[in-house]
Amino acid sequence: MALLGPPYEDDLQKNCWRSRDDTLLVAKFENGHLSSLIESRGSPDDWTHASANVDVGYVRRAIGPAPSVVARATSTPPPVIVTPTPTPPVVTPPPVAPAPIVATTPAAPLVLPPIDAPIRTGARAAKEAAVVIGLEAYPFLGAGVPYAHRDAQAFADLLLYTRGVPGQNIQTLQSGAREQILSAVERAARDAGPGGLVWVYFAGHGAANPSNGERVLLGDDVRADVQAFESRGVAVSEIERTVAATGARAFLMLDTCYAGASRSGASILGGTRLLVPAYAVIRTAGTAQWNAAGPDQISGPLPGTDHGAFTYFGVGALRGWADGELDAKRDGKITAGEAQAYVARALRRTGTNTQQPVYVGAEDLVLSTGSEMGPPL
User: Which residue, of 32, 39, 86, 130, has the fewest CB within 10 Å?
Assistant: First the structure.
């Protein structure tokens, strides 16, 4: 590009002025418009570019009145040439997936499966017999035992189909007094024979002997009188002795309490509560006891199941729910220790805080080979 546009290329001095500070300036033109100034201290040979896009006012202030060439060049305002900065490409960010909506709903209620359809294992226990007692109506006490019949039937089916006790060796009582209960136990002990096992299940009212605090099971003919409890009840120890007399062993599962209360917690003696000593549950050789509650606790029903809480989870435990309870390893065998631990945990999980089961006996005793998975607790 020429330093000066035509017609001034041949006469540089014509477009050059000297300022007071001895700076030599020359105007640079492009297409007839002033585009910049060139300045130098010295000869024109040393002129260098000083600034770009200097307006005419600046030229006039620097060099005084402009000659005709400057005036001609500035008669039309110079356009401002702006080199556009390249616009960076628009980068569309990838769509952001919306955050998932987390529903803050209440925890789903625990669904408790039925226990009335038996689990069939094909097991056989020829040297075993059972007395299954479910006393629901107590006409002279004014307080019955809800679901005792259903409890007894569920346990009888467990013994028959899951444990494998012969059907002819299982006696089920839905009513009975002291005499009927003891007679059934005597027969079961004979059926099992020496070395055999007698199962005794009881769902009904219990009490404490007013004389010594011993635990007794009440027949359905008993009156609301503590003296009748002693004379008409069946002591737990009496059942154990009856079985042991034949050389058989006994396993007692007792869904009752002994403090003189019904399953609802109401007194069966018009407000009187019975004291059961803590030492009343003792271990006897050849016998195991599984009690629904401690000495001063109440054995109650489990809402929504139509069963006593202890019986529901006890039968469930032997259906297979308790397998692996102690070591998280299912091996197809439910021991007494596993069953006790499972039922205790299940009662706490379901808010049944009025009772905790009590087991006295060998914890490694295998009670069942049921394989059913229980509800998540």
Answer: 86
